[in-house]
Design brief:
This protein is mostly helical and 116 residues long. Helix content is 83%, strand content 0%. The protein has six helices and no strands. It is globular and about 55 Å long. The model has no long low-confidence stretch (mean pLDDT 87).
Length: 116
């Protein structure tokens, strides 16, 4: 009986995750960045290795001009084991949005060096 209850609880949670994913992406596409931000923060917290959730969260931060939060998130990802050159590119783009071309170029160079 306990196993049946656990299975039902697990199956109940699957549509909720899918709905959060759908709503986050829909709000982002509609330009409702504050609403999308709430969903993407939860999705990234629960699924830190999903690049599409990270990109959505970064887009929200950047559209809301919360560049320091985007930078902190990217630097945290760079320090993790699962870093990729796209993280350096995103960091460079974040610096470019803040009008820091020297920092942006430095990040782009790090991405190129990472690839090599």
């Amino acid at each position: 009986m306990k196993s049946i209850c656990l299975i039902l609880i697990f199956l109940w949670g699957i549509p909720v995750l899918g709905q959060a994913d759908f709503l986050a992406k829909q709000y982002l596409n509609d330009g409702e960045y504050e609403k999308a931000l709430v969903f993407f923060e939860g999705l990234v917290k629960d699924n830190p290795t999903r690049p599409d959730y990270l990109e959505g969260l970064l887009a929200c931060y950047q559209q809301l001009e919360r560049y320091q939060e985007a930078e902190a998130l990217l630097l945290d990802k760079i320090d993790s084991r699962n870093t990729s050159p796209t993280i350096f590119i995103e960091l460079g783009y974040n610096y470019r949005l803040q009008d820091f071309p020297d920092k942006a170029n430095e990040s782009y160079e790090k991405a190129l060096n990472f690839i090599e």
